């Protein structure tokens, strides 16, 4: 393990603790490799019946990938730098796939900030996964904010959210809380943050074979405590606006709605990369008809094309390097984005036989 990924065993449950609090547990390549190694080892270990993913801080489970690292490596002139970046996304997406199909109960304690790559390491499959949110949960797929797109399987799980909720979350990048995460199908169970110490004690004293059922039973009395779901209240509005046939049509629809919710969504989209809004819209449309492996393979193509284009590097520069919050998007307006520009993002740089995720 690395200094930032720690493991313990308790009653045939393997417990993974992310411990990089200064960066809200942002994932490095070493952390991805450590998570992969331990999950592969525990998958085949007859002495492990369940796995729990948690954080050493209630501020965040995981805020996503280490975007400063993306910038530092992505702007290097050397091929070694680009190779490191290629490894990051290839290995991260393999980890996402491993978790989704993990054969043992996989419990993610999604307390605090859970964004981007944090969702990717939490979204285990419905047969074995249990995603616990709290009143401290702050969730988002915010990639469009930095000129990226909802990856780590986002094209799969956002495309399968009820109605057009996935389009709303993917195209605005706005945050949601526990009730909305439950309503959108991005979480399973609510536990108040004040009960997390008791939940931790339960995890450490319950046999792994009974862990998933025990947590579900523990959480049952709090089922109504997550509060109202804004996404439920605004569902008709979301489906109407984000069910439009293009990004341009979505923006036009939102512009005609004076409501606070619609105007907040509109304001968010106006700040995003016009090109990546178009790419994200196309990605979600495609993802709805693809399995997870194909979604991850497509996302891997888009990552390569995005860094070649440089949009994500400009977004990171504006947000965390220069911190001017004034990204110079290329092109700067939606009207200047052509179908050919979008299509280029989806054109694989590899033949099928050489795709880095070909064996998923």
Automatic annotation (TrEMBL):
<dbReference type="InterPro" id="IPR032259">
    <property type="entry name" value="HIBYL-CoA-H"/>
</dbReference>
<feature type="domain" description="Enoyl-CoA hydratase/isomerase">
    <location>
        <begin position="14"/>
        <end position="346"/>
    </location>
</feature>
<dbReference type="GO" id="GO:0006574">
    <property type="term" value="P:L-valine catabolic process"/>
</dbReference>
<protein>
    <submittedName>
        <fullName>3-hydroxyisobutyryl-CoA hydrolase</fullName>
    </submittedName>
</protein>
<dbReference type="Pfam" id="PF16113">
    <property type="entry name" value="ECH_2"/>
</dbReference>
<keyword id="KW-0378">Hydrolase</keyword>
<dbReference type="InterPro" id="IPR029045">
    <property type="entry name" value="ClpP/crotonase-like_dom_sf"/>
</dbReference>
<dbReference type="InterPro" id="IPR045004">
    <property type="entry name" value="ECH_dom"/>
</dbReference>
<dbReference type="GO" id="GO:0003860">
    <property type="term" value="F:3-hydroxyisobutyryl-CoA hydrolase activity"/>
</dbReference>
